[in-house]
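Box 3.1 — From sequence to structure: FecR family protein
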Amino acid sequence: MKASKVRQEAARWFAHMQNVAEDDFREHARFERWLGADPSHAPAYRQMAGIWGDFESGDRLARLSHAVEQGQSAQRQSRRGVLRTGTLATVALLAGGTLGWQMLAPMRQRAWPSVELANASGQPAQVHILPDGSRLTLGAATRVQVRYEADRRLVLLHAGVAAFEVQADPERPFVVDSRQARVTVLGTRFAVDRFSDAHVRVSVDHGRVRVAQMRASLGGYWWREVQHWLLHDGQVLDVTESGGLWPATPAADAFAWQQGALVFSGATLGEMAVQLSRYTAKPVQAPQGDSRNGHTPRIVAVVQTRDIDRFLSHLPQLATLEVRHTPAATLLLPR
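Predicted structure (token representation):
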């Protein structure tokens, strides 16, 4: 293996291991396998540790290398490296000019703590510029958690709908996790709408995303991928418990709420009820199971989010359904 390639690998491993927890045995095992795969790996890593001023890492590496040679289990310790003045130029020269900036990414993310973002029911779109330059727009009744990790940028969509304009970073892909669906992207504009725990819609304005259907295992403590799809410009995918569906819905509809409108192009009552509820004091509800059986109305309409109540009052004139108001909810019932 060329010396420059070994140095690049060592630099990547050093940057990665600064963010690996002590009890992450899987990552420590991967690191140990890399160390033992070639005699040149350990010296290159020790040199990298010295450049970054992590002298304890060098001592720890010596012990770890010895354990690898003996075929023993290495002691798993972790310590964050210390960035010293002048180091960046040295590392950039060592790794070929571009790796220095890539190595800084895991170091920079330490200044970006995990944050909770929420937008209340009935509120207009809320725009957030994330530290990496990506743009996150929250719809009404939406709650997310943003995490910056060593190998990815993660947004957990707990409820509601959000739109994303992602800055490309091949070293750390952008991931949106809504339990039922997991969306991975390098750079694009797309929206994720969590209608329920079992129904998530992904709409791509432009770019390319990978959507994976996730299924709970071990009582919900672990989620595994069961299948995936690749989406590009203008495509819309619904991920449900039964798999993926391609609704006849323009991708542009998924972004209308950013301008204070909701667009329904053949929406089921269930889908419409979820979106309307984000702007009303009482929840809007539809009978369960109406969304796929084809026996209930499909709604085509445009409504301003500030005018939901008036829209509900006129809805029976648009479709064969009844709007019934109760103390607890507004019900949309097929006639």
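Summary of the box: Residues 26 and 215 are 22 Å apart (CA to CA).
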